[in-house]
Amino acid sequence: MALSGAIGLLGGSFDPVHLAHVALAQAALRELSLAQVQLLPAGDPWQRGALAASPAQRLAMLELAVQGAPALRVNPIEVRRDGKTYTIDTLRSLPAGPEYVWILGADQLANFCTWRQWREIARLVRMAVAQRPGADALAPAELQTHLNELNRPLLRIPFAPMPISASDIRRRLAQGDSTQGMLDPAVAQYISQHKLYRDAVS
Predict the structure, then answer these.
(1) Could you give the 3-state DSSP secondary structure of residue 149?
(2) 8 A C-beta contact, residue 105 and residue 135
């Protein structure tokens, strides 16, 4: 389904941003004919523990990762907001006018109904899912029922799964192992220069 003029939103901890994040953003941009995709790093995500890199460092790495891709933008709205990061608050803070598409991995889709005010989220945005290793891209029954009531299909992003995760990257960096093929070279250089992820983080 083409959504010309719509803006894709890809949230995450991005601790650190890696090549699969950027590939997913590019795939959504292409497959859904979006005007742009905004990457939204979480400030203080409520469903996970403390992040290893600071908000400023994660923003800097994201800017490096999307340089040269003008349709990919970094939106700092969540890291600039105090308190826990909730998607519903982010959506209500975005400028009115454009149609927004929330981009999820299949793993996020599986627990979407645990998100704060998830029904309202599904009403405010279109939802698009990409396949991810080890997770089924089917909507939970409760969400599918709600989408049917809204007469909105769950959009699908054809995406060749990439077995890359931020947790594996952090583990590799803490152990001094290679992250070749996982990080943008500029991001890898930034991590090295700032001595990030030297201690293991789950």
Answers:
(1) helix
(2) yes
| CA pair distance 93, 95, nearest whole angstrom | 7
Instruction: Give the pLDDT of residue 132.
Output: 63
Strand order in the sheet with 7-12: 72-74, 36-41, 7-12, 100-105, 126-130, 155-157
Mean pLDDT lowest for which of 29-33, 35-39, 159-163? 159-163
Position 71 pLDDT exceeds 60:
yes
Would you say 36 and 5 are in contact if contact means Cβ atoms under 8 Å apart?
Answer: no
Span 41-54, pLDDT tens digits: 998 765 556 788 99
Task: Report residue 43 as tokens.
Answer: 């400030």
Q: Give residues with Cβ within 8 angstroms of 109, minimum separation 6.
A: 129, 135, 137, 138, 139, 140, 143
- CA-based torsion, 16, 104, 142, 83: positive or negative: positive
Which residues, in sequence order, are CB contacts of 196 under 8 Å at separation 6+?
A: 16, 52, 53, 57, 173, 190
Q: What is the pLDDT of residues 105-118, one digit of tens each?
A: 888 898 999 999 99
- Structural contact between residues 30 and 8, judged by C-beta atoms closer than 8 angstroms: no
Instruction: Give yes or no for a contact between 38 and 17, defined as CB atoms under 8 angstroms apart.
Output: no
Contact status, residue 34 vs residue 28, Cβ threshold 8 Å = yes
Q: Which two tokens stand for residue 56?
A: 């400023």
